[in-house]
Amino acid sequence: MELVRDSKWLQFQLTPILQEIQIDSESTLQWCPDFINKEETNSLFDHLMKELNFEHTQITMYGKPIHLPRLQSWFADEGIVVKELFQKQKQHVWTSPMQMLKAQLEKQLNVKFDYCLVNLYRDGNDYINFHADNEAKDIIASITLGATRKFLVRHLRCFGKNLTRKRKQLTNPEKKDYEFSLTNGSLIVMSGATQQYWKHSVPKEKHVKTPRLNLTFRTL
Ligand SMILES: O=C(O)CCC(=O)C(=O)O
Ligand SMILES: [Fe+2]
C-alpha cells in the first residue's frame, strides 16, 4: 500500500509505445502489452480491490431478471449520469492512482474520458459475451490487471450481418477475426468505428483460477 501514497506512483516516466492496427478502413485498435509496469499493476490491483464496492449487476432479458456473469463497479466525476450502466450504486470518486492513470491515457490518446467502468472476472467462469459498446463514442481505453484472459474482436459479417444497427453498409476487411492475450498491465484501445462494425468478447476459460480486473475508460 505504501506505493499508492508515494507521489511518484503511476507517474509514467516513459511514454509507453502503442502499436496501431488498422482493422478496417474506419476502425483502429491500439495495443500495448506492458502499459503499466508489473510492480505498479500489483499495487493498483490491490488498491482497487480494497477501495471498490463491487456489484453483481442485474439486467432484464426477455422479461426476466438476470445477473451479469461478472461483478462491476465504476468511477466518474460527481453528477455524471450514464444511463447504459445498470449498476444501482453511485459512482466512486476518482482515487489518486486512478486520476494518474486517466491523465496518462488522456495525454497519450488526446481525449478526455468521462467515466471508467470496472469489471471483475472472479475466475475463468466469469465472462462477457460478444457485444459492441454502442453507447461509447469513438474511443474506449481498456486496461487489464491480474489474470490473463483472451480478448476476441470479430467483424459483424462473422455474425451473418450485412448492415450496422443504423442500417449503414458494413466495411469489408480482409481479416475479420482477432485474438489478443490481455496480460497484467496491458492496454488495448478501440477507436474510430470499431463499435459500429465489430463486436468483442472475453470468453470463459475454465482453467483460469485467479481474478482479473478490467478498467474501460469511456466518453459520454
Ligand atoms: O473485460 C474486458 O476486457 C472487456 C470488457 C468490455 O468489453 C465491456 O465492459 O464492455
Ligand atoms: Fe465492451
Automatic annotation (TrEMBL):
Example GO molecular function term?
dioxygenase activity
According to the entry, every stretch annotated as the Fe2OG dioxygenase domain falls at 112-220
- Source organism, top-level taxon: Eukaryota
Signal peptide residues are: none
UniProt-listed GO biological process terms: DNA alkylation repair
Which InterPro entries does the UniProt record give? AlkB-like, AlkB-like_sf, ALKBH3, Oxoglu/Fe-dep_dioxygenase_dom
The cofactor named in the record is:
Fe(2+)
UniProt xrefs under Pfam families: 2OG-FeII_Oxy_2 (PF13532)
Any idea what this protein is called? Answer: Fe2OG dioxygenase domain-containing protein
Q: Which organism does this sequence originate in?
A: Adineta ricciae
